[in-house]
Amino acid sequence: MPHAQINGTEIFYRSVGTGWPCFVLHGGLGLDHTYLHPWLDPLGDQLQLIYYDQRGNGRSGRPPLDTLTFEQFCADLEALRMHLGFDRIALLGHSYGGFIALEYAWRYPDRLSHLILVDTVAATNFDDDIQANLQRINPPPEILAALASEPTTDAELQQVLQTITPLYFHTFDAPRVQAAFQHIVWSVTANSAGFAIMSDYNMLPHLSEIHAPTLCVVGDSDFLALVPHVQLLASGLPHAEIVVIDHCGHMPFIERPDAFLQAVATWLQHRL
């Protein structure tokens, strides 16, 4: 699979499908594109999906940690766009990947055609709401312990995330989730850096400047990207629609793929 030399590091990417170019931004940080591929591949009937791993993540290079910033992630995406020869692109960002997608939409508005945000929000100052939601869910002690832990190795990060994964689903299907996560190349250093740089993340003041047509998708049982917070994001964007998927958590493309893919495909039909 190809790598591009981008801004002093290697960026791994793969392309699936034909049609309008759409870069797919994974969440985490510390994960990679493989939990999205092949779940999103059916969108390849309408889009050319370019999956890639952020610097410091997955199969991409491991540059100095101080280069893991939102500004640099956006610069890498812009350089990869130019490397692949696209004039304008769509973005599909999941969770943390949605943070980067929003930043890119703000920094490079002339290069963005469409924006699809999946279970993401515009700011990270909603901890009280998330904690209240966690108390309502009342997960077992082992999940609470994992949430409070600070992994120091890639293997520990993998174990922690596998332990807390049931929180990310309305109905947890262990074999399906194992299949989705089995190829991830974990990075605890990227995960730690990701938490550090998102501590003051807030795109709310800039949403009105993002004019690309936008689809916000969220599961009604998402414990992280709560529906009211996604509604706040959508209401701040001039040209946004929101789709709430019933009986679904943080990963609708895994838990309810038919509903998710139909929602995105229908939205795209009127915009491509």
Structure description:
- The protein is of the alpha/beta class.
- It is 38% helix and 18% strand.
- It has an eight-stranded mixed β-sheet with strand order 1-2-4-3-5-6-7-8, sandwiched between helices.
- Helix 8 links the parallel strand 7 (214-219) and strand 8.
- Helix 1 packs across helix 2 (96-107) and helix 4 packs antiparallel against helix 5 (154-164).
- The longest helix has 15 residues, at 70-84.
Count the strands?
A: 8
Mean pLDDT: 96
Q: What class would the helix/strand composition place it in?
A: alpha/beta
Order of helices and strands: EEEEHEHEHHHHHEHEHH
Determine the number of helices (DSSP H or I, runs of at least 4 residues): 10
CATH fourth-tier homologous superfamily: Alpha/Beta hydrolase fold, catalytic domain
Sequence stretches where pLDDT stays below 50 over 5 or more residues = none
Kindly report how far apart the N and C termini lie. Answer: 28 Å
| Largest beta-sheet characterization | 8 strands, mixed
Question: Which CATH architecture?
Answer: 3-Layer(aba) Sandwich
Task: Specify the overall morphology.
Answer: globular
Topology-level CATH name: Rossmann fold
Q: Strands of the largest sheet, in order across it?
A: 1-2-4-3-5-6-7-8
* CATH top-level class: Alpha Beta
Q: Measured on Cα atoms, how large is the radius of gyration?
A: 17 Å
Share of residues in strands: 15-25%
Helix content: 25-40%
Q: How many structural domains can be distinguished in the coordinates?
A: 1
